[in-house]
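User: Hey, my collaborator sent me this sequence without any context and asked if I could get a structure. I don't really work with proteins. Can you help?
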Amino acid sequence: MAVTLTQSAADRAKKMLNKRGKGIGLKVSTKVSGCAGFSYVVDYADEITNEDDVFESFGIKVVVPKENLPHIEGMELDYVIGGLLNEGFEFNNPQVKDSCGCGTSFST
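Assistant: No problem. I've predicted the 3D structure and written it out in structure-token form, which is a compact way to encode the shape of the chain:
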């Protein structure tokens, strides 16, 4: 299974990368955090190592550290705009078994 982007997320990533002026894609990972166990980390990918898996959606590379893949395999990353001040990446992750009440962390 792959980690994929929706068209909206890929368009946003492309704009972010163009504005930044460098980078090969997005790096999507997890970190131990919050009351449920893990939180997502989305950053620029500037390199690919042997410790990474690479997927591509709509021309954007998604770099995932191999150690994080079991927590996010099959995830679709979307970019939603819900109003003037409410926009951002949304994580549709089939691996999530539980999440905290505020929605900032999850467990698998």
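In plain terms: The chain has a mean pLDDT of 88. You can pass these tokens on to your collaborator as they are.
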